[in-house]
Amino acid sequence: MHINHETWNLFFNSPSEQFVELFKKEFERTNQAPDLTNLGTVYLDTNRIQEARDAFRRALEMDKQARTVELTFTLLGISEWFLGNFNEAIKLWEQSLDAQFADEAGGVEGPALMWYGALRTENPKLKARAEKLVGRFWKIKDPTTLNFWPGPVAVAGYILDRVDTHTFLNVWQCENRTLELRRLCRANFWTGVKCDVPQTAREFFEEAFTNSKVAILEPEYFLAKWEFQRLSAKCGDE
User: Fold this and answer.
1) Can you give the pTM of this predicted structure?
2) What is the DSSP string of 124-183?
3) Phi, then psi, of 176 in degrees rounded to 5
4) Which sign, positive or negative, has the C-alpha torsion 91, 96, 99, 103?
5) Contact at 8 Å (CB) between 94 and 133?
6) Among 169, 46, 37, 151, which Cα is nearest to 105's?
7) pLDDT for position 227
8) Which one of 19, 55, 84, 225 has the fewest CB atoms closer than 10 angstroms to its CB?
């Protein structure tokens, strides 16, 4: 069965466990790296981390010129992060910078996650290097003149403290409903990362991955789940 637009819509409104076999069969049908990345994404969402890591690794081995290669590096890094291999995860996020489709608009994901990794591993040298890389993407002279989400570069501005939380989270929005749901995932995740109050940060992370499953298209969706669980344990909740 080909995964068409209707099937994706059904996936976004159903438990991922129901779609593992469908995505597996789709990859067997096409033998294309992007479809293997899709399968790995479903594995990741169903907490089958080892299988997700294997799928992402194989996808990169199959085709490093695929349109999804930057995303695959990113998700492979997240898989390693979930397995506790933090340094390996950061290396993979750095490798995503050299991906064919890591262009000026979307290539901010790699250095942004490097910055996140540096923050969580308390590595000031890496943090400074990541901030320098992130800075290459921020070219908006006056963010107060914008009333719309300027794309992935918005994350760069927020990491660098060029944009306040209210503007980043509430003012900059997307007119398209699907894009807005994805934006909310990213904005809530990064707001949670920079929040110093654990209980409040946990609320931002929860909002990032519970607002809509469409957000599964953003890497932050998975890291928000991890952060929520980490802070729930820290706060003494199950």
Assistant:
1) 0.92
2) HHHHHHHHHHHHTT---S-GGG--S---THHHHHHHTTSS-HHIIIIIS--SSHHHHHHH
3) -70, 130
4) negative
5) no
6) 151
7) 98
8) 84
What DSSP letter does each residue of 196-223 carry, written as one string?
S-HHHHHHHHHHHHHS-GGGGGSHHHHH
Tell me how far apart the alpha carbons of residues 55 and 38 are, in angstroms, rounded to a whole number: 9
Under 8 Å between Cβ of 53 and 76? yes
Residues 6 or more apart whose Cβ sits within 8 Å of residue 179 = 149
Whole-angstrom distance, CA of residue 172 vs CA of residue 205: 19
Q: What is the pLDDT of residues 121-180, one digit of tens each?
A: 999 999 999 999 999 989 898 998 998 999 888 999 999 999 999 999 999 999 999 999
* Alpha carbon distance 17, 179 (integer Å): 24
DSSP state of 14: S
Coil/strand/helix, residue 48: coil
- CATH fold group of domain 1-96: 1.25.40
Residue 7 has pLDDT above 90, yes or no: no
Domain ranges of the chain: 1-96, 103-173, 176-232
Orientation of helix 109-120 relative to helix 177-194, angle to 10°: 30
Q: Can you give the pLDDT at residue 68?
A: 77
Residue 104's identity, in one-letter code, is: E
Using the 8-state DSSP alphabet, how is residue 75 labeled?
Answer: H
User: Rg of the chain over CA atoms, in angstroms?
Assistant: 17
Question: Are 11 and 19 in contact, with CB atoms under 8 Å apart?
Answer: yes
